[in-house]
Specification:
Helix content is 46%, strand content 24%. It is of the alpha+beta class. The N and C termini lie far apart (65 Å).
Length: 140
Amino acid sequence: MKVIKITTLVLISLGLFGCDNSEKAKKDEAEKLTKTQDIIISDAKKSLPYQVDSVTSLVDIFKDDNSINYRYVIKASKDQLQISETEKMTSENLKKVYCTDNQQVKEFRDAFPNGAVHNYYIDDEKLFSVKLTPASCNTN
């Protein structure tokens, strides 16, 4: 009877401690996420520079800490822009697109769990940034 108890204890211990694949699964998931991010960014970069509107161009896309980052250049002077109003309007429009229920946009948000950062520059001076995360879609 004692042998059966010891054998059972050993088998349970092996089951609990010897079969932990969670680290491998996490690593596989992280590799899959990185590959997806790289494909999205690589495909997007093929279209750069992209003229967003008459004064704004998207010039670079890169990833950083599971977020996608965009660099826009505005061809205007600060005097021509109402920066606070432009930032507010831009934030609202970007959030509307980012938070849509479109399946492709949902997959995009899943691919970049730390969100998207839109950086706006005149020459090399950053005017403002708009950061959106999946949590942004839960706020009004």
